[in-house]
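Encode chain A's predicted structure.
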Amino acid sequence: VARNESATREINEDIERAHQAVSREGHVRMLCECGRERCDRVIALTVEEYERVRADPRQFAIAREHLIPDMEQIVAETDRYAIVAKREGTPAAVATEEDPRD
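Encoded structure for chain A:
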């Protein structure tokens, strides 16, 4: 699950870089960073919102109903998405190890 989330996060990093080159305003359509293997949901964030998510490598932006309670907890929520933080132990360690910004 954590590796699926990390792979999606890397794709979103590329999407964000492409949008930063054009404009930092408006919503960017990004992939839900949940751990569901077949998730194809798209969520809307601004570049600034995504930067706040990425400030902590244990955090991911997900569709609000994609929470995996055993592995993560919601730390912030909007009408468009939720920000989850991985729970201590293996989930947090894998998220930190797989951080593409590290």
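Residues 2-22 form the longest helix (21 residues).
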